[in-house]
Amino acid sequence: MVSVFNEILFPPNQTLLRPSLHSPTSFFTSPTRKFPRSRPNPILRCSIAEESTASPPKTRDSAPVDCVVVGGGVSGLCIAQALATKHANANVVVTEARDRVGGNITTMERDGYLWEEGPNSFQPSDPMLTMVVDSGLKDELVLGDPDAPRFVLWNRKLRPVPGKLTDLPFFDLMSIGGKIRAGFGALGIRPPPPGHEESVEEFVRRNLGDEVFERLIEPFCSGVYAGDPSKLSMKAAFGKVWKLEKNGGSIIGGTFKAIQERNGASKPPRDPRLPKPKGQTVGSFRKGLTMLPDAISARLGNKVKLSWKLSSISKLDSGEYSLTYETPEGVVSLQCKTVVLTIPSYVASTLLRPLSAAAADALSKFYYPPVAAVSISYPKEAIRSECLIDGELKGFGQLHPRSQGVETLGEY
Ligand SMILES: Cc1cc2nc3c(=O)[nH]c(=O)nc-3n(C[C@H](O)[C@H](O)[C@H](O)COP(=O)(O)OP(=O)(O)OC[C@H]3O[C@@H](n4cnc5c(N)ncnc54)[C@H](O)[C@@H]3O)c2cc1C
Predict the structure, then answer these.
(1) What angle do CA 248, 250, 254 make, to 5 degrees?
(2) Cα 211 to averaged position of ligand 1 atoms, centre (Å)
């Protein structure tokens, strides 16, 4: 997850949440010395010190560091790449505790097989596509078939999820009563919002009814977030849908309003370098997701420090930060102006406690559900012919509602 600090702004009641691969790009700068956007490439004083673990780290002059990004997962690397692209002269360093970049991204290749043990795809939004193009991977991008159905297991049968509006009346995952309830709710004929921040379950049951929740949203939350929809915040997990009701009085009202606003607003031209995905789809790369962190890391070169584990952070009187690392060469101290933490929130909580107990308490409340990924290969002849579409195994995985009595969250 991306948690960035100088002054730490955590809402006290923040719930949630599984971090997302999609848009890791916000950061603050120090309130003591802010550089306005119009002033390019601020150069800041900093230093790197190296010393043995037996004695306190000593500072020696070195190249100045403007920003230290802690964590070499996809969030940290995308932030570093965005900074390096927009501020070519800024000195950005990425520090990663492990001896490889990528964090959760774990692509494996062996015996002719290529598989993912962590995330398997991303949504090809424009910010993600910008990262792909900037890292030189445009030609390696692979987009899924937008017509490949997704399936939900319901009453012992895999049922396709509607992919487009015209599928809505015909799909057999929901009853006619459930579809009518969802339609009325989407139009705004449903109980008004309560005064508190709703969970995904509360919001969906109230707006779209029990069937949409139990047969579509609950399996989606289990399969994608491995999370409990009664605890996930609607606003945080599905902010775009939450905003529709807030802005338009209902989901459909909000959709029309959003379309009107989009058509009325003058849009900046789309970056012509970006590929245009057809329909709703997902993306990866020819050699798996690991290509993205590997490519960004290769471009950043020696600005990426592997096996550097951050062990403490302190704030100096100058307003700068001093970071202390355990590295293969001993204890190293790095002084910098701005720090971006993209490490798991429980690690950030411990590191930030000396600076802000409130931030540490808030960060300690995020729940990280344990997930096991198992990869299995079958020969094509083992698939029953009635499971094939036009003789092919077509589809983008299956999701399993917890109510269906199977222990797996889904399959891809
Ligand atoms: C099984 C699984 C399947 C998933 N499937 C998908 C999917 O299909 N699509 C999708 O969009 N998302 C998916 N996700 C979520 C996605 O993987 C994460 O949102 C994303 O990888 C988070 O990236 P990150 O860089 O924020 O964090 P991480 O990947 O956790 O990276 C954090 C990095 O910080 C480093 N670090 C930790 N402590 C320190 C320290 N003290 N000093 C220095 N470095 C430190 C870690 O070693 C790590 O490399 C999945 C997640 C899992 C676990």
Answers:
(1) 35
(2) 32
- Give the domains, in start order, of the chain with CATH numbers: 1-35+54-146+285-380 (3.50.50.60), 163-276 (1.10.3110.10)
- Entry field: residues in the chain: 412
Tens digits of residue pLDDT in 86-105: 999 999 999 999 999 999 99
Tokens of 355: 């600076």
Give, in order, the Cα–Cα distances in Å from 274 to each of 94, 270, 328, 383: 26, 8, 40, 38
Task: Name the residue of 27, 93, 95, 343 whose CB sits within 8 Å of the most ligand 1 atoms, as the mutation to test its pocket.
Answer: 343
334's CB contacts (< 8 A; 6+ apart) are: 46, 47, 48, 49, 65, 68, 93, 95, 322, 323, 324, 325
Mean pLDDT over residues 55-69, rounded? 65
- Give every CB contact of residue 384 below 8 A, 6+ residues apart in sequence: none
